[in-house]
């Protein structure tokens, strides 16, 4: 049954989730866990031979529109690696493509836009997303998956800056000069653009949750290119609105906000209203815990490049991260960015085993005794005492 069906007309009702007891959902909520959960950003994809075989040639946008194929590609890495969550197989530009903005995904390059966003007139090309009409295949695939998966499904959307960057730059960018120029030359237009993209992300995320997704990640992958001041002024308000609106329609849903190179933004991102903040490999996880504060879980942060060499190197780095994660609840193990296509899947499989065996953040030592210790604990992480409580918001 969809959560929408459980919602009273006047407001939202928190429905118990099927995976509330899973390590992934519990870690997002900073509850004790039986083992540290792990999944990998971009875990479905070219690193897997079974992906290449099932996917075949053709545009990924065509693959995304086939629910049976999407379900298969989403499940493949869970079966192969033994991850504690599945990430829905889709792409951050799907909503913009679905409303007809003219977006394609070029193999080896990423999203490309035929006629980039330039002026207020282009807002008309970004009509509101109606998921039942524009992306019914997303709803169908999530429904299929929620019937067949044995682990929680993470729905996702692109963050406002990252999606805007593709629409304005016309494709992947190194310096993001066009989008920065727009943000600063015409803040009113930027505001309108970001609000529209936030509405689209919200509509898409709500449709994924109604269809059975258990958690949400917002990929604002390229936000780390911004100064903290500009992120706070020009991106964070829309991001906060996104998570606040999600909380009012789907209260209690675990949420994660992630970006690359966001070390200087982590404290701000922690105020966006999510359960967890994703951390790339540049910030040691103990330092990341300090930056996001005690009321947020952290997700990360193995350098994906370190999975390309020997197992010894990947194992040493994984162990280092598990130590830095400390013992406080609220660590979801992940890479610091997506799986690189040339990764040996065997290494990732071993990373999962190692994290399950040796991870200790939030470990519920009493699980074996049948005692569910759901206490919020005070723990020392590194040099700093972290008093974990359920206070609202993060650190300002
Ligand atoms: O396992 C998964 O995470 C699969 C689902 C997924 C895809 N894209 C499929 C995909 C997710 C969560 C994304 C998110 C996404 N898309 C992000 C945020 C994550 C990040 O990496 O920061 C971004 C920035 C995009 C935009 C995008 N789409 C890029 C940069 C690329 C890579 C281009 C390439 O070919 O290397 C894509 C294409 C894409 N999206 C592929 C996949 C599996 C590869 C292309 C293919 O298989 O045809």
Summary, kept brief:
The chain contains 17 helices and eleven strands. It is of the alpha/beta class. Strand 6 (255-258), helix 14 and strand 7 (276-278) form a beta-alpha-beta unit.
Describe the protein's architecture and organization.
Helix 11 packs parallel to helix 13 (236-249) and helix 16 (311-324) packs parallel to helix 17. The protein contains 17 helices and 11 strands. Helix content is 41%, strand content 12%. By secondary structure, it is of the alpha/beta class. The site of coproporphyrinogen III has 23 residues, from strand 3.
Question: Which terms would index this structure?
Answer:
396 residues; alpha/beta; seven-stranded parallel sheet; two-stranded antiparallel sheet; 17 helices; globular; disordered N terminus; disordered C terminus; binds coproporphyrinogen III
Heteromolecules bound: coproporphyrinogen III
3D shape = globular
Question: pLDDT below 50 for ≥5 consecutive residues: which ranges?
Answer: 1-10, 366-396
The percent of residues in helical segments reads 40-55%
Mean pLDDT: 91
Q: Report how far the terminal alpha carbons are from each other.
A: 38 Å
């Amino acid at each position: 049954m969809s959560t929408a069906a459980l919602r009273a007309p006047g407001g939202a009702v928190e429905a118990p989730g099927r995976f509330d007891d899973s390590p992934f959902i519990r870690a997002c909520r900073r509850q004790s866990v039986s083992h540290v959960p792990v999944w990998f950003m971009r875990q479905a994809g070219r690193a897997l031979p079974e992906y290449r075989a099932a996917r075949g040639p053709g545009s990924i946008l065509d693959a995304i529109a086939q629910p049976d194929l999407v379900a298969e590609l989403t499940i493949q890495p869970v079966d192969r690696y033994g991850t504690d969550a599945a990430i829905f197989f889709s792409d951050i530009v799907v909503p913009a493509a679905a409303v007809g903005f003219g977006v394609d995904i070029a193999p080896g390059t990423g999203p490309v836009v035929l006629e980039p966003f330039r002026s207020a007139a282009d807002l008309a090309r970004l009509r509101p997303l109606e998921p039942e009409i524009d992306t019914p295949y997303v709803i169908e695939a999530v429904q299929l998956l929620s019937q067949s998966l044995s682990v929680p499904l993470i729905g996702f959307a692109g963050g406002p800056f990252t999606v805007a960057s593709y629409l304005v730059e016309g494709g992947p960018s190194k310096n993001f000069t066009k989008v920065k120029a727009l943000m600063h030359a015409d803040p009113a237009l930027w505001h309108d653009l970001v609000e529209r993209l936030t509405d689209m992300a919200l509509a898409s995320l709500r449709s994924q949750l109604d269809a059975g997704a258990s958690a949400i990640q917002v990929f604002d992958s390229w936000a780390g290119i911004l100064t903290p001041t500009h992120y706070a002024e020009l991106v964070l308000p829309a991001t906060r609105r996104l998570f606040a609106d999600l909380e009012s329609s789907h209260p209690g849903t675990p949420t994660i906000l992630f970006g690359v190179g966001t070390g200087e933004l982590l404290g701000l991102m922690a105020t966006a209203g999510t359960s967890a903040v994703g951390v790339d490999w540049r910030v040691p996880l103990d330092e990341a815990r300090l930056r996001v504060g005690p009321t947020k879980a952290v997700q990360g942060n193995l350098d994906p490049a370190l999975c390309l060499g020997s197992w010894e190197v990947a194992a040493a780095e994984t162990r280092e991260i598990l130590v830095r994660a400390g013992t406080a609840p609220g660590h979801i193990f992940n890479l610091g960015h997506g799986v690189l296509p040339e990764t040996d899947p065997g290494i990732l499989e071993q990373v999962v085993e190692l994290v399950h065996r040796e991870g200790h953040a939030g470990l519920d030592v009493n699980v074996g005794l049948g005692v569910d210790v759901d206490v919020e604990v005070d723990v020392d992480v590194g040099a700093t005492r972290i008093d974990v409580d359920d206070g609202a918001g993060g650190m300002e």
